[in-house]
Design brief:
single chain; 277 residues; alpha+beta; 2 domains; 9 helices; 6 strands; 11% strand; globular; binds cobalamin
Length: 277
């Protein structure tokens, strides 16, 4: 019987580690020139060859969002921790099993343009809203990756695009998706994270959205999300908190990194509007 190649062994291990989570491989050379400047950049292995992208679906079913006042991605406990634990644990086990190779995990605060890399790895198309849309789970997926120096066979050599119906751009509350280029600070999701004082227009947009953290409009109106499957990640359900009240602990929430001032300010704005009605 022929011996299994290292590639086969690593591929089998990845299936064992990620189970039902979509994952795929892209060539590091595709993103080398697109890396995002951040501290984590220094962790990229010296002879980086491949990026193993993993999607962490987070849609829990509509009953989980009843009367919610925060974005769907912030309903479960902090994905940086939950998905971070899965990807860090996987990288540690890969290092242990294949000590001749490097496996470095990243999530969100990552030098990898995660949407682009995931599409190149075959995990889905890039929507006009800039998000990765997976065939099964839609765009309701967090992304993370492991960079390795092992030359696994990559998926595709370029990203692919959505059906381009334009609905996300038409419905975008701030109009940022209708602009020539994506001006990050005009996105309502970015506005909801702003530490500095919001101007009247920003306050109005936030209040109208009813969402104290993030923005889901470009995802909710996307026809490619209509039949998104629910997440296979148990912990997302067990930790779900759809309504956040001023004074609740931000510990282990997706917005913990911002502290409690910004979310409390936003909730105050939503509440003051409700009491005026
Ligand atoms: C900064 C950031 C933000 C900023 C700016 C977003 C932006 N679009 O630039 C703000 C705060 C606004 C934001 C908001 C959100 N974010 Co954000 N964000 C990031 C972060 C940390 C970096 C993004 C970045 O700077 N990319 C680099 C620049 C160069 O990318 P870019 O300008 O978009 O360029 C892309 C296009 O050129 C495209 N592209 C290139 N070639 C081609 C070719 C084709 C054919 C096509 C179609 C596209 C394409 O690919 C490039 C790279 O992605 C990433 C994590 C990461 N490390 O990637 C998460 C990330 C993109 N965000 C994520 C999420 C969930 C969100 C929100 C949905 C959260 C919410 N509900 O409020 C919103 C969505 C808003 C929106 N429509 O973009 C997820 C997206 C998951 C997914 N399924 O795609 C990520 C990957 C975080 C994660 N680890 O899961 N985000």
């Amino acid at each position: 019987m022929s011996e299994k190649t290292t590639e086969t062994l690593i591929s089998e291990k990845l299936k064992e580690l990620f189970g039902p989570l979509p994952f795929g491989v892209s060539s590091f050379s595709l993103i080398r020139d697109r890396l995002i400047d951040c501290r984590a950049k220094s962790r990229i292995p010296e002879n980086a060859a491949r990026v193993i992208s993993v999607a962490f679906p987070y849609y829990l079913g509509k009953e989980y969002y009843v009367n919610s006042n925060i974005s769907m991605y912030a309903v479960p406990a902090d994905y940086h921790r939950i998905a971070g634990d899965i990807i860090k644990n996987a990288a540690a086990l890969l290092r242990e099993r294949f000590p001749d190779y490097q496996f470095e995990p990243f999530i969100d605060n990552s030098p990898v343009p995660e949407v682009f890399a995931a599409s190149c790895a075959g995990l889905g198309v890039i929507g006009k809203n800039g998000l990765l849309i997976n065939e099964t789970y839609g765009s309701f997926c967090f992304l993370g990756e492991i960079i390795t120096d092992f030359p696994l066979t990559p998926g595709r050599d370029a990203p692919t695009s959505c059906i381009d119906c334009g609905e996300c751009a038409r419905q975008c509350p701030s109009g940022v998706l209708r602009g020539e280029c994506f001006e990050k600070d005009k996105c309502l999701s970015d506005i909801s994270q702003k530490k500095s004082e919001l101007d009247e227009n920003e306050k109005e947009m936030l209040v109208d959205s009813g969402c104290a953290w993030g923005c889901d409009v470009c995802q909710k109106v996307c026809p490619m999300n209509e039949h998104a499957a629910v997440s296979p990640i148990r912990e997302f359900y067990d930790t779900a908190q759809p309504v956040f009240r001023a004074g609740d602990s931000v510990e282990d929430r997706a917005f913990a990194w911002r502290g409690d001032k910004v979310i409390n300010r936003n909730i105050g704005l939503l509440n003051s509007q409700n009491s005026e009605k």
